[in-house]
Structures are given as C-alpha cells and as structure tokens.
Amino acid sequence: MEVLAGFGVVVAVIAVGYLLGRTDALGPGARRALANLVYLVATPALLFDILLRTDPRTIVSENFAVVAGSALIAGLIGFLLFRLRGRSAPDSLIGMLASSYANAGNLGIPLAVYILDDAAVVIPVILFQVAFYAPVTLTTLDMLHHSRRSTLARNIAVAFRNPMLLAALAGLLIGFLRIPVPAALSEPVSLLAGASVPVALLVFGMSLVGSRVLLRGDVLLAVALKNLLQPLVSGLLAHYVFGLTGPALFALVVLGALPTAQNVLTYALRFRTNEILARDVGVVSTLVSLPVLVLVTVLLG
C-alpha cells in the first residue's frame, strides 16, 4: 500500500503539470526552460548527491548486467522485427532505440524516489545508455549515412558532455577513492538536488498537453517491446540468472517498464530518420507505462 500511495503522489504532481500546461499558466517557453533546469542542473545534482551517500560497488553490480541485458535483448528483437517488416536499417535502428531506450533521467528518477524509495537504482540505466548504448548506436547510424565527420570517438566525446553522466561518474570516482567532500560543496548540491523530482514530474505533465499520435503497427510494436517485453526480460534475468528476489527484483522490473526516452526523438531528428515513430512511441509508451507500473507494483511491490 505504501508503494501505491507513492505512485499516487507521482500521478498527482504529473496532473498539476498537465494543468499548468493546459492553462499556459507559466507562459510560453516555460516547459523548455524547466526541462533545461532539470537536465542541466537539478538531476545531475541529485545523482551526485545520491552517490556521495551510496557505496559505489552496489551500483555497478547485478543491476547493471540486468539493465544492459534486458535493453539489448528488447532492442535487438525490435531491430530484427522492423527489418522483417521491410524497414531500412537506419529506420530499424531508431525502432530499436524506441523499443529499449528508457526515460531514466526525467521520469525514472522521480518514480524511483516515490515508488522504490531509492533513486540510486536508476544510475546503472543512465551509465549504460549514455556511456555505451547511445554512442555505439549513433556511430552505426553515422556509418549507414556515410558521415565523414562523425566517428565512435566523437560520439563518445559527445556522450561525455552529458551532465548526468558527468555527475554520475564524478560521484562514483569520489566514492571509490573515498575522497572527503566539504560541506561547502555538498550542501548546495543537496539543495539543488531537491528540485529534480518535483520539477521533472511537472515538466512531464506539461509535455502531455496536446499530444496526438497515430496508433499504427510500428508504434504498437515498439511500445509492446518497451513496456511489456523489456520488464519481463528484466524480471527473468534478475530472478533466474542472478537469483534476485523481493525489493531487488521489483526495482529491476520497474526500471524495465520505464517508457521510451525523448532522447530517441532527438537522435531521429539528428539523422532525419523515422522521426514520427520516435515521437509517437515516446508519447504512447509514456501513457502505457503508468498502468503497467501499477500492475507491476501490485504483483511485486
């Protein structure tokens, strides 16, 4: 019941964001400004703050293997199915990401705080996606588009300019080396971190205003893989491969059920490839994720 109550808190804050967006109470450009605040400042501060109080050895463990394995399995199945449906290799790569690249930062962290009571569980998702999954996939897209300006090294360099990845790596490094952090740094970071969860949920609610999508076959396929197959694979890997049960199993299934990240649309726009699919899957998978997460909570929470 406590978990369901936490989920109710999340839905309530999202509803407030939706009302703000619907009434345009914060004025034009508010959603983008708040989203930038979350992305550039609040969420990196939250990740850093979490890692200052977390044993880094608990971050890079079975959780990372389950997160990576479930994403790659769902993504590769998605790629093969899109190819079988006659889609080009670049379109299928975007379909692969839409089927497996989770919204770990903007939605994963708030849900982890209120549903799992532990935002640290999201860090393996961010590390895997930003440091490995995105650079490798984008480099493959570059090669398919015959880009001469982009290489694996360049895409990795771009990934390492991501503020969330930098914050996570800095926190892990400090934790592994046991470097003392002065209050002059930790206290402002903690203060900024407090804005991440509520503002991210407000932005998410605002983003739902005016969302119209076409429920065609490719969209339904990607949503089924992301919202249904990936959490199932996460649960199977966690339980039968690593022997996890209880809260650890529940947390990994919740992470697997997270919706598709908006980053996928950014990548699609960058390569002018399958933009409509990336946009529609982002919206539909987000709406579908809410009842799926409730179901997972009832069954495993």
Automatic annotation (TrEMBL):
Membrane-spanning segments: 6-21, 33-52, 64-82, 94-115, 121-144, 165-185, 191-210, 219-242, 248-269, 281-300
Keyword Transmembrane helix among UniProt keywords: yes
Mode of membrane association: Multi-pass membrane protein
Subcellular localization, as worded in the UniProt entry: Membrane
Protein name from the UniProt record: AEC family transporter
Any one of the GO CC terms: membrane
Primary residence: membrane
Top-level taxonomic group: Bacteria
InterPro entries noted in UniProt: Mem_transp_PIN-like
